[in-house]
Hints:
The protein is α/β, with parallel strands linked by helices. It has three domains: 5-183 and 218-397, no CATH class; 185-215, no CATH class; 421-556, Glucose Oxidase, domain 1, CATH 3.50.30.80. Helix content is 37%, strand content 14%. An eight-stranded mixed beta sheet has the order 7-8-12-11-10-9-13-14. A four-stranded parallel beta sheet has the order 2-1-3-4. Strand 1, helix 5 (88-98) and strand 2 form a beta-alpha-beta unit. It starts with a helix and ends in a 26-residue tail after the last strand.
Amino acid sequence: MTLHPTIARVTDRIRARSEATRSAYLARIAAAGRAGPARGHLVCGNQAHAYAAMGPQKAALAEGRAPHIGIITAYSDMLSAHQPFEDYPKLIRAAALEAGATAQVAGGVPAMCDGVTQGQPGMELSLFSRDVIALAAGVAMSHNTFDSSLYLGVCDKIVPGLIMAAATFGHVPAIFVPAGPMVSGLPNDEKARVRNLYAEGKASRAELMAAEMASYHGPGTCTFYGTANTNQMLMEFMGLHLPGASFVNPGTPLREALTVQAVRRAAEITALGNDFRPAGEVLDERAFVNGIVGLMATGGSTNLVLHLPAMARAAGVIIDLADFDALSSAVPLMAKVYPNGLADVNHFHAAGGLQFLIGQLLDAGLLHPDAKTVAGDGLAAYRQEPKLEAGRLVWTEGPTASLNDKILRPAADPFQPTGGLRQLAGNLGRGVIKVSAVAAERHVIEAPARVFHDQEAVKSAFKAGEFTTDTVVVVRFQGPQANGMPELHSLTPLLTVLQDRGLKVALVTDGRMSGASGKVPAAIHVSPEAACGGPLARVQDGDLIRLDAVAGTLTVLADLEGPRTGPARPFRQCPWHRARAV
């Protein structure tokens, strides 16, 4: 199948834009690769420190002939998605020995749960944690004792941070090892219903707690299609998981078999063998375009609009918001998973999942089929699904037809002809909107602004009954320079209540929303942010704002250059935007 012209055009312009940075990056990792296995340059004292506690593996490590695999783990039993990783190192070490290799935990990285910190002060650390994770993983890899690496991580900032580290040490092969989603519990739409009732004072705290505990009830990733599960999709589309590994439940024989096979594959793709696959060569412009295509086809998390450019930069690839918009115009929305539909990721997986999606998109020319992956050259392997036959892991041809067209549809008959995200631009700056979960009649909202400087003030106004007419809620000073760009997901229930009352309502913010948000139109990541003197800082109560997801515009129908009155906050001197006075 010929590559779709939009996919080819966007890839070519990313390649041209990145020529200097990508060339410098490839030269750097090539030089590191030419030096041979890094541990070969360690003196005996260095190595003795590294291997001192390794028991039966010490002899093989000292000899230095067997592939040595470094494990970077984000284990935390406060994150249900990461709790299964507790036992992975033991399993990995045993599998490595069976494969004629060795393995050890190189280091751990912090794993923050946005579900715990939503609406709390800790959320202001959330986005920063990505770079801390990248640094922590880089510290672990800097010991230079590893021929290959396994990254154990799932959730929101963790996978992007780990990718940044894997790219930085791009001369070392890297495989990402998931833990899988928890089994289905209370349906996500029922959980949301109880949240909305609680926001209106029609459900008790005990009823709310019972619903939440029935939804988040066991080990594994939360089952809605938010940032964590979008990350898992990306790792398959970008060729960093084994095929079909993303959505196999924890604690199952198939999950364990896939982990063991990831270890074997990590041992096979080192520079010591004949199938060397350094991470930096996998993470090229084709991989990132494939990842964005997957994001659009599945209606994935808006947080990846922030993370993918940072991940790409670590590999010398420069991505712009306009690339997301252009790809969205060509890629159909093929999946409906909560919050974009009623199904959860287990239902999505059962309906055909990623293997059906990847096959359809390949056949439509919407993916780069020749992208390098950890499984082999090309994405064809990712059409196949893993199974256990007589206790042996095999891959067979994946579904060629959807098993539930309310969840998953072919590229020729999608839920909508374009992807789940749109760029917005206008006199308020640039932003992004997730349209995959927003009803078509709400794609254009024009209403007076009500301006707030934090989400608690919005909640107070809601409790006081102040929202009685169509409103565009502006929450500013929520960008990275202001307070770390926290998610504003705790506003979702009350905004949904207003919408359900028949009001036209939208959110405009320089902050961000959860990857699980979407039913209320929300222009997010608006930049330049208010703290840098962006236009959003000059909006006042009553200004008419038009959010048009069809035309891709975000405008205020007022003169922002004239005298303005009302509450203001001092601007910071941000490096990319000159501060102005209100």
